Amino acid sequence: MASGLEKCLSLIGFSLICLKMVASAKTAPEIPTINQAYSKISNSITVEWATVPGATSYLLTAEDGDTVIETMVANSPGTVTGLKAATLYTITIKSISAMGRSQESPPKQAKTVLAAPVLEVSCPSPDSILVQWEAVYMAIGFSVSIMQANGLGTIWKENTTNTSLTFTSLDAGTLYTIKAYAWNANGIPGDDSTCNQRTSPHAPANIQVSFDSGTLKASVSWAPTEGAFNYTVMALSDSSELSCSTTFSSCTISSLQCGTEYLISVLASNDAGSSESSSAATLKTVACAPGRVTIQENPPGHLSVAWSSVDLGDYYVAFVKSDDGLEVHCNTSLTQCNFLSECGFTYFISVFAYNKAGQSPLGDVFNYTTAPCCPTDINPVLVSSDTVEIVWSPVRGAELYETKAVDGYNVVECNDTAPACTLSALECDTKYNITVYSFSEVRGSNTSCTSQFITTAPCSPEIKNVSKDALSIINVHWQATNDDATYTVTAKGEKGLYRCSSTGESCTMEGLPCGSVFSVTAVAETQAGQSLPSHSVPLETGPCCPASLTVTQVTQSVINVSWISGLVAQTYVTVLESHTGQSKCHTHQNHCLLGCITCGANYTLVLKAISATGLTADCAYQSYSSSACCPLGVKLYRLGPNGIRVYWQASRGSANYSTDLYGSKGIFTCAPTTGLSFCDVTEIPCGDVYTVMVSPVAETGLKLTFCPKKIYSVTCSGSTLGMVIYRGKRNAE
């Protein structure tokens, strides 16, 4: 059973293989047969075969053992490209249809031809061409041919085993076509290379040169040269080389140098190179403008113009033109000319050299400015002791005026563009030599200007001291520094002007009012003028004294001094002085109390007024006698029913006294006889209390009221004689 199954399966498999072979035989195209394979180009092989029915394309395969290159073609012949030169390849082919591909054809071998040599061509001369190349793989020889590119003329062909070849006797300026290939040991030629090369042209002939002296340019022309693309004109001198290039048969060379001899030649060139230089033509340019021009004015009014000689210069012309438009010139074969000139002008000077080629280029135009003219109408005016104002008329050519004042040692300068100058900071009382110089920036100062003298006003005096003597005379002292000067001193204040004059160094003024402030100045005067006032010195007169002085005895040891205030007095000092001592009071009021006064003494009373600045006026000296001393031991005694005796002890010195008894029934007074120390009061009522005061009487008759008061009781009973009862003491009121 199993054996039967195996047989069945084997039969089925064999049947399937047969079916596949039958189907394949029906669909795939036939295998092509290669007729021939050959190479004409070094990177390809061409294959020829018989056409296969039903094939729509063919697959060519080239294999050299290292690489396989396939190419799809439509029909025979077909070419496989991208191959290596001089290489043996195995070629096969497959036919392709819509039903599939055939098997590979039997192989056929073919070898690619040699590579083309890589040419390098050059033109060493107008009638030759050099051809060079690198060695070619598998090559044993080379063939090189040359002919004119336009097809005219002869073809030259040379075989060589070298890698270079030179063709000679060619036409100049002509385009040639060069073709070369290599062959192998079998004599089979390889790929060929083709290139074009032109021979260089001949040198131009018939050169013509035309020179333009105004622009320093040369126009050069020549006959055209066969095969020339460009022309180069060379202008050679000892110091420079100039050129111009063109495609035409003429060219202009610019920037030629003056005073130079040039050799002019022309080169023709094309893509092969340049020709030899043509025969040189000689060109002499115009002379250069003369240099090292010097201009001198010596003496003033005469200009001398000199210059250096130049190459190729035959003669010279110098032109001088002033700034007012006037022009003069001189023609000379020398190197110097002389001209007349005037002050304050600017002259423009140019020098030209001449030869057969024409006038030299314009060189530097020199300007020479003559010294400006001097001012002539100078008018100095003395403004002050140190200042002089000077005015003059403007002069030609002056840009600035320089004024100098010289006193022999010192120089004071003033520079200004205006025709006026104020010279300040001069020394007073000094003789100056004053000169006004005209100045221009180019030429400087005209030092030939004349000068004149002027003496400045006197110096201001310097007040050294202002003093006042005991008689209120003002003494003013100053320092005199001027020659032959008179000095005037002025004291100016609200209460008027006071003056004194002197030719010395001091003067005095009297009658200046008290309590005033003055400004004291001094001036000096000479024939040249008056000085500036000196610095003012303040002067304050002493304060005015009071108009009256009153002394009042306040107590036995105190007096009151009063007065009417004087002008500008700020404080007062009152001094009461005697042999026993001094009492002093300093106050800003118009009265003063002086204490510690000794009664019954003679004093000297002094009053001083003091201003705010400390000036003192001794205003009053007078005698003063203090009042007599108050008596001591005042007692009352009964003299009867209605009488009272008042008794006291007199103080030192002689004095008159007055006794007053004050009671409710009246005031009772008695005065003793001179020299006595008691007095009696009659008809005084008893039974009352009395206030008793015994007072000294001044020489003026004024009764002083500052002595002590005592109280006594006067009864109406008891003895009619005896002492009255003392009841107490009252202070003086």
UniProtKB/TrEMBL annotation:
Residues 1-25 form the signal peptide. The keyword Signal applies. Keywords: Signal. The keyword Zinc does not apply. PROSITE patterns: FN3 (PS50853). SMART domains: FN3 (SM00060). Residues 28-115, 116-202, 203-288, 289-373, 374-459 form the Fibronectin type-III domain. It comes from the Eukaryota. This is Fibronectin type III domain-containing protein 7 isoform X1. It comes from Galeopterus variegatus (Malayan flying lemur). The lineage of its organism: Eukaryota, Metazoa, Chordata, Craniata, Vertebrata. The gene is FNDC7.
